[in-house]
């Protein structure tokens, strides 16, 4: 009988050891899982940051191209106006001169 009780006590102790070891493994796995989740989160954030920087740079570059086009077009229009003015300047001076002296007569 004593032998049976000792075996039951041993089985109970072994069960407690197994339960304790299982809890330790569970805690260790939870810790590893949290660490891995943190690493994955950091990776996702870094990748999103890099992608958003790339998208921002692409949009900014496109904007700069559009600004250059607009500035170039404005410069071209100014040059055309200056050419027209230079071509018509003499005629305008003559007309003004004639009108000024025609009014005084």
Concise structural overview:
By secondary structure, this protein is mainly α.
Structure description:
With 105 residues, this protein is mainly alpha-helical. The chain has 1 helix and no strands. It has one helix at residues 2-104. The longest helix is centred in the middle third of the chain and has 103 residues, at 2-104. It starts with a helix and ends with a helix. Keywords: Coiled coil. This is V/A-type H+-transporting ATPase subunit G/H.
Using brief descriptors, characterize the structure shown.
1 helix; coiled coil; V/A-type H+-transporting ATPase subunit G/H; 105 residues; mainly alpha
The helix-and-strand class reads mainly alpha
Distance between the termini: 149 Å
| CA-atom Rg in angstroms | 44 Å
Morphology call: rod-shaped
Counting DSSP E segments of at least 2 residues, the number of strands comes to: 0
Helix content: over 70%
The percentage of residues in β strands lies in under 5%
Q: Give the low-pLDDT segments.
A: none
What is the residue-averaged pLDDT? 92
Major sheet size, sense and barrel closure: none
Count of helices?
Answer: 1
Order of helices and strands: H
Coiled coil: 11-39
Protein name: V/A-type H+-transporting ATPase subunit G/H
Keywords: Coiled coil
